[in-house]
Write the structure tokens for this entry.
Amino acid sequence: MTPTRLIDAQIHVWKASTPDRPWPLDAIEPQRPVPLEVPEVLDEMAAAGVSGALLLGPTWEGSRNDYVLEVAAADPARFGAICRFATGDPEAVERLAQWRDIAGMRAIRMSLNRGDVEGTLEAARRSGFFAAAERYGVPLSIYAPGRYGLYAGLAEEFPGLKIAVDHAAVETAEVPLPEAVAPLADLGRYPGIAVKASALPCFLREPHPFPSITEAIYRLVESFGAERVFFGSDLSRLTVPYAELSDVFVARLPALSEAERALVAGRALTTWLDWPEPFDD
């Protein structure tokens, strides 16, 4: 059996706020008091058997991408960058035509889980952001928990746009995880929508081996196919050891074929993002 290569669809990394690199004055509370920097991430990945990861700067750092782009550009076989972007700024949108010239950049993140979501969406439409992302093949990662109509509306309006549903659109543990992901099933009919099966232990109240995650993955694969379901951790807020989560995707999905497990573990993500380096060896 070929060893499963795990590529994590999302890990936040950040640096401490300093006078030379300050956080915004209205920054929200970070997920942990000590910044999660790349050396610690590498140690965690090695212990969990994870080969690569997409890195994303967290909202409390503001809209900066310097750290994640620096790391991804230096080691594209291991890291890619999901970037923050001024989606409502027409001048910034014009630069999307050259986005592939930005070393390490693999996708753009939109956080639509708080604040004026409708206003942010309308501004992005007016600026031409979604149309430009579709035209130039910029993949998006959108976190809009529970807003299934939002995803469907974008897929219908911009059918060539690639959208990954962050954290399976789940936000709390109030509903059992297999039930919480069930409303995503209808989105599987849109070929431009994929699902990041990330942060799932944060929405559970059960120990390893997390049978609810296994059931949720089966439901997602049934709806989207293994080609559009991606392993992820959201490591900085993970409530269980990283190795326990990675074990689910390596050894706790017996109903999937070896090929399907390889896709969900990382092959599908790198194909979706046109990021060949992690599998070039």
Q: What stands out?
A: Residues 258-272 form the longest helix (15 residues). The radius of gyration is 18 Å. The chain has a mean pLDDT of 96. Residues 6-279 form a domain with the TIM Barrel fold (CATH 3.20.20.140).
